[in-house]
Amino acid sequence: MRRFLLYAHTGREAALTALTAIVTEMRHHDVRGVLIDEQVDEILSGDLADADLRSLLTGGAVDVLDSVSAADAVELAIVLGGDGTILRALEVVREADVPVHGVNLGHVGFLAESEVADLAFTVRRLLAGEYVIEPRSALDVRVFDADDRLLATHWALNEASLEKADRQKMLLVVIEIDGRPVSSFGCDGVLLSTSTGSTAYAFSAGGPVVWPEVDALVVVPLAAHALFARPLVLGRSSQAAVEISPENRDLGVLTLDGRRVEEIRPGMRLEATLSEQSVRLVRLHRTPFADRLVEKFELPVEGWRGRGPGAA
Fold it and tell me: HSE-up of 238 (CA within 13 Å, CB side)?
């Protein structure tokens, strides 16, 4: 039997209502829904799930598995929530290379494509395989101590952000590109972003908007006290590194996709490259990224007189 992973924002009633509708629709097509045991526990221990959903979850209508088993058992994941929920789901399925389709229940979300109002239509198209896969580059990040010993490895779809732990202090950093020093300065932090993340934190920090198909690594200083601290856009073959000066008296904080956090001490070093393993997003429509940009940011386009692509 075919199996789809269902991953929901368990703290939103709209997501749980949509979850009930999806499980019911999938059962009509003899496709099995799979949920992660931790999410089921959260739903059943809360007070947002109605009687229908509780009956589906406890009555054998879905398979309840641990995260590793769930990722290995499914062909596709449907995520109900905003970009944050999609990022959490990707942590579960990335190693198994499971493609993900997001149903938007958030606000300004670039990762989700479908809207909850079109849920039945969306599920039928996904079950029929009427979609395309859009690969997105991710970051590989390595953390070294002051003696260049590898301490940790991480990945991120949007960004890795190094920031000061004490708001009253500055981080003293040296930026290195492809093994060569580029600049050193005091700052609030440094963002290492993918093209996908260019419309997230990096955008708010003044970085450029990079089209998703551009295989880029973007370096964005945060409130740097320097004459030259512009965002840098690197290619796939490049490596960006940030060395935290031993002169720092305070700690830094490394945050991956706004979720995973690691303490960074003076003298440590971060290295970032684009990962060889992409994240796979499921798209039902080939909507131009420019249209998505206008829609999500509500950009003014009045007065446009263009003829569109392909016009003679």
Answer: 17
Q: Which CATH architecture has domain 139-274?
A: Sandwich (2.60)
Residue with tokens 């009930």: 20
The residues, ordered by sequence, that sit 6+ positions from 81 with a Cβ below 8 Å of its Cβ are: 7, 8, 9, 12, 15, 102, 103, 105, 106, 112
Spot the catalytic one: 37, 52, 63, 83. Answer: 83
The C-alpha atoms of residue 55 and residue 202 are separated, in whole angstroms, by: 43
The pTM score is 0.90
Q: Which two tokens stand for residue 190?
A: 């440094």
Q: Which two tokens stand for residue 186?
A: 């005091």
Q: What is the pLDDT of residue 104?
A: 87
Q: Among the CATH numbers 3.40.50.10330, 3.30.70.3460, 1.10.10.60, 3.40.50.150, which is that of 3-136? A: 3.40.50.10330
Is 188 annotated in the active site?
A: no
- Among 95, 134, 99, smallest CA distance to 5 is for 99
The contacts of residue 279 (CB under 8 Å, 6+ apart) are 90, 94, 100, 135, 136, 137, 138, 157, 196
Write phi, then psi, for 277 (nearest 5 degrees): -100, 115
User: Which pLDDT band, with edges at 50, 70 and 90, does 259 fall under?
Assistant: confident
* 260-264 vs 62-65, strand pairing mode: unpaired
pLDDT 10s digits, 57-103: 999 999 999 999 999 999 999 999 989 999 999 999 999 999 999 99
